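Bug #77: duplicate submission created two jobs. Keeping one. Sequence:
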Amino acid sequence: MEDLYHPRILELAADMPHVGRLEAPDGASTKVSRVCGSVVTVELKLKDGLVSDIAVHPKACALGQAATGVLAMHAIGASPQEIRDARDGLRAMLKEGAAPPTGRFWELRHLEGVREYPPRHASTMLAFDAAVEALDQAARAKAS
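Kept job's structure:
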């Protein structure tokens, strides 16, 4: 368990920017882990095809909060594809033993130890799964 809760994980979980809610987000999603009950809500605004604002509202374990912290720190200015790639990279790292994501969301590498604890995968994925769903919602709203 020591490799799971190392100091940077605890820092990411504790020092999270953009906690709260947005007024009139373009997309929003709440994800819940059935395994541990962790809940993460992500709200996004887009401008010129990039994330222009984000709000996160986590009620999660330290691992879920750390992943949410990485998202919140680096999402503004990100393209939807960068966020999708980070989500896919995080999932591959946890479930398939792939290398950690690189680029804007490189700090997800600190969660590599979660790979050895499958019951923790769902809570670790919550923020990025919610962000992708919020992006999908924003795209549908724009298309209609």
